[in-house]
Amino acid sequence: MSCFSSFCVTPMASPPLLFSSTRNPSVGGDSFRRGFRCCPLSLSVSCGVSVGEETGGSAAPTLREVCGGKVPESILKRAEEIGYTVPTDVQRQSLPVLLSGCDCILHAQTGSGKTLAYLLLVFSAINFQKSAVQALIVVPTRELGMQVTKVARMLAANPVGGENMQKACTVMALLDGGMLKRHKSWLKAEPPEIVVATIGSLCQMLQKNIFKLQAVRVLVIDEVDFIFGSSKQVFLLRKLLTAYSTIDSRQTVLASASIPQHNRFLYDCIQQKWTKNDVVHIHVNPVQPMPSHLCHNFVICGKKERLHVLLSLLQKTDLNLG
Ligand SMILES: Nc1ncnc2c1ncn2[C@@H]1O[C@H](COP(=O)(O)OP(=O)(O)OP(=O)(O)O)[C@@H](O)[C@H]1O
């Protein structure tokens, strides 16, 4: 029987992130995973409780804790050096699911941290001793490909003082407008562990048999809605998902900021064999565009009273205009 899980989260509080965002409550990844693993039918979970309520007031987990020992130490150290210590909502919700090996649809707004979530999965799945393409990240544009490659290379670099921690992992950017000849030699001589590719360049390589996907353990399609929205790219993407590799040989992650008609999309993923039957839909939905602890007040007053009221309001709050 077809079975997928849909997981919706409503944001509640705000974390110390490198970007401005709202934050949502945490739901224990383990209990959630146990729930959907045992459930033969589709499951939709919608949560609107704060972290405090959920965890009995204990502190929110760190990125390291959320990774549960499944991401190599050198990568976690690098992530912490870069400043990724507190997971974003989508990372907190998705990492336990991703790292358990499930296919996943990451559905969260732009800038919510989907890239780091799937990259941590990629690094957890790679055998650093093996020189073969083990993870493939497909992007719709060269620009996005360059961004993802940059973050992947930053994470793959040795952490300070950890030069001998692990064999270096290489990341190839196989993007439209790049030098495919050079990539061809590189792929033959010493295949990188991770390839970030635009679908056009990737399929050129696949058609010419320069590149094969037999060692690929993780396939990520970023901005999947964008690719499916382009008639040129969608044909190649379908081929990639079903002909060049199969669902049983890989873990599939489809990421997007918007998935119109997501129930229909999930149904298609299963029916068309783009993902396994137990694909998990993680939908982090920013219902509140403003942090919930921020409150707005207003006072109606005449001209004379204005300064006095403003000053007394400032005294009551910790707002610092200086
Ligand atoms: N755990 C974290 N802590 C602090 N900053 C983070 C964390 N995760 C991601 N960021 C930062 O948040 C910003 C946005 O992240 P990212 O680009 O991964 O979002 P995204 O959801 O993949 O966006 P898009 O849909 O545009 O691809 C980046 O600058 C990234 O460095």
UniProtKB/TrEMBL annotation:
UniProt xrefs under InterPro entries: DEAD/DEAH_box_helicase_dom, DEAD/DEAH_RhlB, DEAD_box_RNA_helicases, Helicase_ATP-bd, P-loop_NTPase
EC numbers for this chain: 3.6.4.13
CDD domains per UniProt: DEADc (cd00268)
Pfam families for the chain: DEAD (PF00270)
Name of the protein described by the UniProt record: RNA helicase
Keyword Calcium: no
Source superkingdom: Eukaryota
MF (Gene Ontology): ATP binding; hydrolase activity; RNA binding; RNA helicase activity
Domain Helicase ATP-binding: 95-277
Record key words, sorted: ATP-binding, Helicase, Hydrolase, Nucleotide-binding
Species of provenance: Iris pallida (Sweet iris)
Reaction catalysed by this enzyme: ATP + H2O = ADP + phosphate + H(+)
Gene3D superfamilies: P-loop containing nucleotide triphosphate hydrolases
